[in-house]
Every structure is written in structure tokens, then in C-alpha cells.
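Page 37, continued from 36.
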């Protein structure tokens, strides 16, 4: 079934926020599941950050604002939130249904090439963020759709934007005893991956090396702790000893 362009930008009310009707997140069509998935990751973030009125959050790969929606519901006093994505339709949705009603929330489109989300773009531009400006940088299922050169590029970009005591929280497909990098590994997680960069799986040692070379100190690694997608979680800080 072909969706009309206007349908992409539709929303429905949920408590005090709006949710997208047509969603890019896998298996989150039920509203409570959609919001609770954000709550679960926010709960994890609270172990490392106060998420208070002094907290500045960068959501890199924000999609349709799933994390933003969760923050609005459970952290109404949050300082500032910035969402960045290469999917122009997702950013348009966020501007219409989130930014319009919440002045501390802003969304930026970056026309970066990605074979899955923005195949027509040709560039890999620098991110429009200031140095040392974010207390929390959040990436959910972003590096799971990138190869290592892009991962290394964005890890370095994000490191510049992270405050000295800030944290970065990211999810990715990371396993031990597998090839260094594999796009759409056959049979992985008993899933069939048919789209470009649908699932990019990393060897744990390689991925941790990428983070170390990009100036991070690993705080915690949780294997496959996102139950819905089986992605692993990494929490890190800037390595101030470098």
C-alpha cells in the first residue's frame, strides 16, 4: 500500500503530547509500547545524569521524536533538547508536533548520506553543534545502520559537542567472536535483512577500539540489553586523560 505524503505527517493525541501515526520504529505501533520504550531508556540515562533543568540533551538520529516525547512526559523541567536526523520527513513531523508547542525543543535536518535513510544525499557534513555544549548525547539504533568509517566520523564529531562531565549513550549490534563488521549478516538474530544497512553488526573489540580512538572512556557495556531489538548499550564519557 502506498501512503500519501500527507499521511506521513499525521499525529494523534496521547496524554499531553502528540505521537506519529505512521512510525519508523520497528514493533512500536501500540502507543503505550512506543512511549514506554522511551521511558525505559530515560530510566537508564538517569543513572548517569540528573536530566534536570540544567541538562542539555542531544538526540542524534532522533527520528520522529520518540525520546523527546518520553522526556516531555517524565522530565518536564529538562533544560534543552536538540534532535538531529537525516530523514527530512521525520524532522518536519517533529517541528510540527513537538517544537511548535515546546520552545526548549528544537529539531535540525542534516542532509547526510545514508543508504537506508537518505540515499540521495552525497555528503557527510559536519554536525551543526557547538563544542562542549551537551550533558547527554543519545543515539538509539544509529550506528546499527552505519559502517565503521561513518561511525568513527560521527563519534569524533559528537565528542567535540560533549561537555567534560557529559555522557554518551548509544545502542548498536555488538557481539564477541564475530567478524569485525558485517552488513546484514545472514541469520543474525533469526531476522531477514533485505534493505541496505538494515542491520550492521560489529565485533565488540573493534567497536570499543573505535570509541577509544575517538576520545571516549567506556563506563558500561550491556550486551543485547534492548530486548525489542537485541541491541547492546554503551555508556561512555570523554577521556580527559588524553
Amino acid at each position: 500500500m502506498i501512503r500519501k505524503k500527507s499521511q506521513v505527517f499525521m499525529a494523534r493525541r496521547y496524554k499531553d503530547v502528540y505521537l506519529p501515526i505512521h512510525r519508523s520504529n520497528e514493533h512500536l505501533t501500540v502507543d503505550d509500547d512506543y512511549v514506554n520504550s522511551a521511558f525505559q531508556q530515560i530510566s537508564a540515562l538517569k543513572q548517569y545524569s540528573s536530566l534536570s533543568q540544567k541538562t542539555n540533551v542531544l538526540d542524534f538520529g532522533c527520528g520522529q521524536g520518540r525520546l523527546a516525547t518520553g522526556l516531555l512526559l517524565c522530565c518536564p523541567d529538562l533544560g534543552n533538547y536538540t534532535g538531529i536526523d537525516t530523514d527530512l520527513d521525520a524532522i518536519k513531523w517533529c517541528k510540527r508536533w513537538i517544537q511548535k508547542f515546546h520552545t526548549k525543543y528544537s529539531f535540525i535536518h542534516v542532509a547526510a548520506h545514508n543508504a537506508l535513510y537518505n540515499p540521495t544525499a552525497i555528503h557527510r557534513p559536519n554536525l551543526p553543534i557547538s563544542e562542549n555544549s551537551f550533558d547527554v548525547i543519545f543515539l538509539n539504533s544509529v550506528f546499527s545502520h552505519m559502517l565503521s568509517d561513518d561511525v568513527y566520523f560521527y563519534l569524533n564529531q559528537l565528542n567535540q559537542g560533549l561537555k567534560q562531565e557529559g555522557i554518551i549513550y548509544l545502542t548498536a549490534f555488538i557481539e564477541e567472536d564475530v567478524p569485525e563488521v558485517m552488513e546484514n549478516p545472514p541469520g543474525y538474530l533469526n531476522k531477514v535483512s533485505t534493505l541496505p544497512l538494515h542491520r550492521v553488526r560489529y565485533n565488540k573489540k573493534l567497536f570499543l577500539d573505535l570509541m577509544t580512538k575517538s576520545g571516549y572512556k567506556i563506563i558500561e557495556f550491556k550486551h543485547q540489553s534492548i530486548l525489542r531489538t537485541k541491541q547492546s548499550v554503551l555508556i561512555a564519557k570523554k577521556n580527559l586523560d588524553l
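The two ends are 53 Å apart (CA to CA). Flag for discussion at group meeting. The first helix runs from residue 31 to 45.
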